[in-house]
Automatic annotation (TrEMBL):
Gene3D superfamilies membership: Rhodopsin 7-helix transmembrane proteins (1.20.1070.10)
Bilayer-spanning residue ranges: 25-50, 62-86, 98-120, 140-168, 203-226, 238-261, 273-292
Domain (G-protein coupled receptors family 1 profile) ranges: 41-290
The protein's name in its UniProt record: Olfactory receptor
Domain of life: Eukaryota
GO cellular component entries: plasma membrane
InterPro entries noted in UniProt: GPCR_Rhodpsn, GPCR_Rhodpsn_7TM, Olfact_rcpt, Olfactory_GPCR1
Membrane-topology descriptor: Multi-pass membrane protein
Key words of the record: Cell membrane, Disulfide bond, G-protein coupled receptor, Glycoprotein, Membrane, Olfaction, Receptor, Sensory transduction, Transducer, Transmembrane, Transmembrane helix
Amino acid sequence: MAKGNHTRIQEVWLAGLPSSEQSKILLFFILLTAYIIILIGNCLVIYLVLTRSILHHPMYIFLSSLAFSEIVFTTNLLPILLHALLNGGAAMNFTNCLAQYYLCASLGVAECFLLAVMSFDRYMAICNPLHYALVMNLKLCLELILCSWVGGFICMLATIVLICQLHFCGPKFIDHFFCDFAPLLELSCSDTSVVKMETTLCAFSVTIFPLGFVIGTYVCIILAILRIRTSTGRKKTFSTCSSHLFVVSTYYGSLIILYVVPLKGLTSTNHKILSLIYTVVTPLFNPIVYSLRNQDIKVGLKKLLSDIIH
């Protein structure tokens, strides 16, 4: 670390996404449409779970918590991205930049835990159906959701404290569409080796361990499904897990590539594209995938539309 007095930067400039004058308007409307769908889709999931008795089950309670997380997560990122697209970049107060990173990272970790909790729910429903109603009661569901959320914010507390202790003297330019970890450290004139090591260990723990748990539960689930005698029964049982598997694959895949085993030589553009997968694509497809693949949610939607029309 180069010791001495450093002037702490007060404001940063987010570059946003690379786009030409001709394409930025199109990209703006694509992302704006995606954001609106994310808000409407996830709000609809939460509303249906709260108001429809057919959805008052653990799987849907966890799904509504995941939907709320996606709403907060994307609202933390997409408005500033949309502003940056229209204006060729966006200025942000540095304190707000740190807050954006902490909220984004904490919610990302919380979602990793929620996805693991959802796999445990599917494991209990398929592998231990006789004990499912007794074990997966409302109290336990709410405790698991609370632990996921609190755990996410606590896990990232050490990282944000270490980052706040660094000296940030510029440059003020962040070649990204939000205040992510690596671009933030590029603004520091301190020795960042400690925070990098801590973050690598943390990222490994909060992605690999939950993912390992998910894989373990699904091995048990698949073995249980294979023991079902009829192909119709096997297909019906597996259909309750396929949506969750899709979300786990896309979400964990992009996180692991970006933060656990980052590829050398990954360009800034490629980094932004991978970031878009878990910041926009996954929140966009979550309510769509779960709605299309779940009969109970379809029934809830039909009843809601029927009530609106009549």
